[in-house]
Sequence to fold (593 residues):
Amino acid sequence: MHRYRSHNCGEPNEALVGQKIRLSGWCHRIRDHGGVLFIDLRDHYGLTQCVVDPDSPAFAQAEKLRSEWVVRLDGEVKKRPAGTENPDMPTGQVEVYVTEIEVLGAAAELPVPVFGDQPYPEDTRLKYRFIDLRREKLHQNIMLRGRIVDSIRMRMKQAGFFEFQTPILTASSPEGARDFLVPSRLHPGKFYALPQAPQQFKQLIMVAGFDRYFQIAPCFRDEDARADRSPGEFYQLDVEMSFVTQEDVFGAIEPVLRGLFEEFAKGKAVTQKFPRISFRESMLKYGTDKPDLRNPLLIADVSEEFAREDVSFKAFKGKTVRAIPAPGAAAQPRSFFDKLNDWARSEGAPGLGYVIFEEESGALAGKGPIAKFIPAEAQAAIAAKAGVKAGDAVFFSAGEETAAARLAGMARVRIGDELGLSKKDVFEFCWIVDFPMYEWNEDEKKVDFSHNPFSMPQGGMEALENQDPLTILAYQYDIVCNGVELSSGAIRNHRPDVMKKAFEIAGYGEDVLIEKFGGMYRAFQYGAPPHGGIAPGVDRIVMLLAEEENLREVTLFPMNQRAEDLLMGAPSEATMKHLRELHIRLNLPETKA
Fold:
């Protein structure tokens, strides 16, 4: 018999009844039932109930066992007595009567409980992640992640993509976040950077004549943590294609994501044809470029109605005003409206104005604190734009356009949740398209790139030369699922003359192109194909499919909110010897007394 096990803890079944077997694993739970000890033995594959009778030669040893001790158990498989079977366990029809126990690894008192999966302080869980990973839900999430990555690879290869690996040590690149720098020992005073994304490399792969690239790519960004963004590092399905239009990218990626989600959705419905929503439409109707389409509420612009001369509500005059419908809210108590107002104030807004619509003499009549300032004709126009009827309410967000849209978007989500309007068991996808190429940088009083500077402008050189830059759209797109941005992508600007002009409009000369993006800019001088791509976030995909709210629940060894690895003690101080080898002298900030 094998030194440690003849079977794993997920295998014992009725076919083994009467056989002697050997199991090894962790003592998941130990119960004393009238002198008979029950040990639930757990390994990666499952859990088996083991029984130690008082007359067993292993009983004295069994009494010493504690939770999470690693042991080897020998015994005979027996059918469980009638009425004690557990149909929820693959091994629930049998149990092992133990004849011999060997302790392979004793465990100290546990800082994190394994049995029960109860909540526990996050920093403790991260410091003792190797114990935390034994917990059933987290363990299954990590295994789910592996199956999802396997499925992605299979689907990409079936679609004709080939997997490449790009460098980890590269040059610093201003892509919107801070780089992690790596000092060079051989080149004093110079630094490598960890890639924020393989953006330039994957484009160079296309210039080199390869046609369909993908990679499960590690990316490194020195950013603050959020629930949907890991500090330090994350993984994305990095994709690039040659000789493609925007529609070709959609046609290649949409089936991969749809099939992936259908495979792991546990019966939830998945969007079959991803709708395309323009950035401008999304900001108007949903107040965000990451709309959750499970929520049916649509925001309306009612700025014109509040600009009318006969509307005397001065707080909204001259402002962008967005209306958020609240179907059936007239039946809600006053506390419903007060709570939403308090929430809006907590977000830094003055509040949410609202009108409740009722029917009087066959016509709509608005009630509420601001209704008296809005004449009947304007109320009817607001109700029509917001799509409400008697028994509904409308909430208002007002201010500068961006701020009004943001508050309206958040209010839409909150109202939908409060009224129970959002669908639950569904994955709702969409494409957000037609992003603006440029935006106004108020701090520097100049036109700047809105998102990715490498995107091809719609209209090409003609648009750059003849249009107001703030009206130019880019061939840039996002994939959004249930309000989570999974990916950004674009058709790339592969022409050096168009790229030079695009950077010139944003105030960057050709010297900046050469200095910051020299490798790619030079490559484009030697025949670059039209190309485009996308990079869905693997961590976020797994988070959605695992039905988790935080990326740390689907990542093996995550950092905490302060970008610290509590398990390994990173970041840590370097020794003076190491610093001398790297020609580095520290200039630390002064600490306050």
